[in-house]
Amino acid sequence: MWKMEITLIFVCLSSLTVSMADSGATAAHNAVTEPCTLNAYYTAIESQLKSLANSAVTAVRELQQQQQGIQLAAVKHTGSTKGVSYTVLSAIARARAQKAAQYAAQAVQVFTDALQILNRKHGETLALAAAVAGADSTAVKHTQKALTDSKILTQGGGGSSNRGCEAETTPKLKTVGNCGSKAQEMQTAAEIGQNIKGLTHLKMIRTDAMKFPTLTAMIEARGNVNTGDRWQTGTGSTHCHDNGSPQDAATAQHTVALHKLKLTSTTTPTLETLATLAEATAEASGVPTAASATPWLTEDKAFAQAMQQAVEKHETPQQVLASETLEELANTPEARATYNFIKTKGGKPPSTESTAKEVANLVFGTATGTVDKAFLQLLSTDAVSIPTTRNDIKTNVQTIAGQPEFEQAMAYYYVQNMQNLTKAVEGVKKEENEKSDAAEDKTGDKKDGEKKEECTGTVETDCDKTKCTWNKEKNECKVKESAYISSVTKVPLLLAVLLL
Fold it and tell me: Signal: present as a keyword of the record (predicted)?
């Protein structure tokens, strides 16, 4: 019954999390209605994509540096319980670093691609807004023109008496927007950056909706234009008029002028479903499919696909070891493998699984506390002192991790461990020989305290091949290594080295 309750609670919490995320995204979508809010919306998504890419790379670097520090501690304390503990932690950190590297290798490219195409779409949107926002113009240059191909005013025939007045104006781009009144809406729109995970919809101006705005021309007229024989450009080029000599706008009686040009944008952002847009055909996304066509604007299909892939790749990066309890880490494959190895001395794993507490007590020396307090904090006070030909290295394990001296420190302690291992092996060999001699004395193989040397032959024919081996280079008879291998494996120092 309790398992069902836990499952229901988990499902409810998951649903609540998704609902909260959807709610945040919905509020952001609804806030986007014009260029100011759309700009804030896109900027927030761009910032989040950059953050996701950086976080993926940072996770790899931090885990690798942490793993180096723990690995150095493991080598430094080889042969002790602490050394075994750090060895296991190093393996756990290494596994996390590998997962982080695999994720970063795929995710960073996806986030970068999405960011690149979003930047283009964002730029196109702002360019459209800049062109429309400053398009109203009252500075119009007028020039009288003779019309030979009248198309509209054709009363009485071909309109041969018609006269033209060319009006020319150059609207300016508006490089900044007046967004002060939209501050609250912009803040809400920017919340989309924190709701990227699980995003299914996106507010945008589709490519096929990016059309020329509505053009409104206000034309002023005064008096009568009769035959047009005296049609000319008015003083200051502010109008065209019918008069014997040029007149200014205030004096002219028979005149026309373009008073004002106004561009009105009818394009507004719409909420699009990423999955639907990603599967749309090229025609539906507003980009021609002809092989010779070069699209000037971002294809909506490609934009949706890139954003959809970025959303799917979004996940929490691997974290460095910190607040995990030792019992939690005892359930990792690395900790359990080490536990079984120590318990069985490399033999067949036990048929029954040990508890996390049992594993932690053996592998970490305790089952209480967090890994940070029990092991990681100690790295900052774990002194490292290495003699060199120049200045001796004097630091601590945590500081040297990730530094150029790290490899030198690893080599130094590795050599020390090998020297200690050699001494331990020689000690075991001596102990085995002494035991063998004592056993022979008891069975009467040696009399009057005389010790029998088993491998003392000076020529190969005198070397007992059942117990000894002949070294051709040194011309000496030596005890076979197999005679003491079983005892060497009992040396804790060797066990720790093998675990590294």
Answer: yes
The token pair at 336 is: 């359990």
For CA atoms 61, 63, 66, 71, the dihedral sign is negative
The pLDDT value recorded for residue 160 is 61
Domain residue ranges in the chain:
406-499
Q: For the packed helices 35-76 and 81-133, what is the interaxial angle rounded to 10 degrees? A: 160
Contacts 24+ apart (CB under 8 A), 308-313: 308/274, 308/275, 308/278, 309/110, 309/113, 309/114, 310/49, 310/52, 310/110, 310/111, 310/113, 310/114, 310/196, 311/196, 311/197, 311/198, 311/199, 311/200, 311/274, 313/106, 313/107, 313/110, 313/111
From the CB of residue 190, how many other CB atoms can be counted at a distance below 10 Å?
21
Nearest in space to 146 (alpha carbons), one of 168, 167, 166, 163: 163
Taking the CA atoms of residue 90, residue 91, residue 93 and residue 99 in that order, the dihedral angle to the nearest 10 degrees is 160
Indicate the pLDDT class of residue 469, thresholds 50, 70 and 90: confident
Give CA separation, 25 vs 31, 32, 310, in Å: 10, 11, 16
| CB-based burial label for 320 (10 Å; 0-12, 13-18, 19+) | middle
* Whole-angstrom distance, CA of residue 24 vs CA of residue 8: 24
Distance between CA 256 and CA 249 in Å, rounded? 9
Measured distance CA(255)–CA(58) in Å, rounded: 71
How many angstroms separate the CA atoms of 328 and 364, rounded? 12
pLDDT tens for 262-299 read 777 778 899 999 999 999 876 555 555 556 677 889 99
Range from 166-170, 313-317, 364-368 carrying the lowest mean pLDDT: 166-170
Task: Assess contact for 133 and 35: CB atoms under 8 A.
Answer: yes
The answer to whether residues 24 and 194 touch, using CB atoms and an 8 Å cutoff, is yes
- pTM to 2 decimals? 0.73
Q: What is the pLDDT of residues 86-100, one digit of tens each?
A: 999 999 999 999 999
Q: What is the DSSP string of 246-289?
A: ---TTT-SSEEEEEEEEEE-----EEEEHHHHHT--TTTTT---
Residues 320, 324, 328, 329, CA torsion sign: positive
Contact by Cβ (8 Å): 132, 99: no
Residues 285 and 343: their CA atoms lie apart, in Å, by 65
Tell me if 87 sits within 8 A of 496, measured CB to CB.
Answer: yes
Q: Is the pLDDT of residue 159 over 90?
A: no
Q: How many residues does the chain have?
A: 500
